[in-house]
């Protein structure tokens, strides 16, 4: 089994040859090795390894650099409790469209609670403007980093962060 950090290192080593624009614009976080979660525990190793290379979350667009920094100036990972993430994804992002349907809005809040029970920990929506599929970086209570693919009111699939990262850069 290949270690997650080995996968991140392999991807990072290949990037300069494949993505000159990405390499030129990257901003390594100088204290990535010290990164913590909001509760003070050590951030997942794969995310610290990525932030040491570039402090922007990976992105599916051609730049491969997202608009959100991985780690803030305070050395804390830019994530929120999953209860907040699920509330945004399930309810808040569609509430304006459903303001005349309080029953559905109540159900969506219940769904957010159920998903929080299943997928607790921390996370961040990686593509908040996408209307169809919502990839979420999920840091589980055991501090593993995974991508959750949320679509049609359910998590369709999950994959380790490093595998998703490799897919962004290696599957051209």
Structure at a glance:
This protein has 172 residues and is α+β, with helices and mostly antiparallel strands.
Molecular structure report:
The chain has 172 residues and is α+β, with helices and mostly antiparallel strands. It has 6 helices and 7 strands, in the order αααβββααββββα. The chain has helices at 4-18, 20-25, 45-53, 82-92, 102-118, 161-170, and strands spanning 56-58, 65-69, 80-81, 122-125, 134-139, 145-151, 154-160. The strands form 2 sheets. It has a 5-stranded antiparallel beta sheet with strand order 3-4-5-6-7. A two-stranded antiparallel sheet has the order 1-2. A hairpin with a 2-residue loop joins strand 6 (145-151) and strand 7. It is globular and about 50 Å long. The model has no long low-confidence stretch (mean pLDDT 85).
List strands and helices in order, with pairings.
Layout (H helix, E strand, L loop, with lengths): L3 H15 L1 H6 L19 H9 L2 E3 L6 E5 L10 E2 H11 L9 H17 L3 E4 L8 E6 L5 E7 L2 E7 H10 L2
Helix pairs in contact: 1-3, 1-6, 4-5
Notable traits:
172 residues, alpha+beta, five-stranded antiparallel β-sheet, two-stranded antiparallel sheet, 6 helices, globular
Biggest β-sheet strands, sense, barrel: 5 strands, antiparallel
Mean pLDDT: 85
| Beta strand % | 15-25%
SSE topology string: HHHEEEHHEEEEH
DSSP E strands, number: 7
- Into which percent range does the helicity of residues fall? 25-40%
- Uncertain segments are none
The helix tally amounts to 6
**Quaternary:** single chain
Gyration radius, to the nearest Å?
17 Å
End-to-end Cα distance? 24 Å
Structural class: alpha+beta
Shape: globular
Placed side by side, the strands forming the largest sheet appear as 3-4-5-6-7
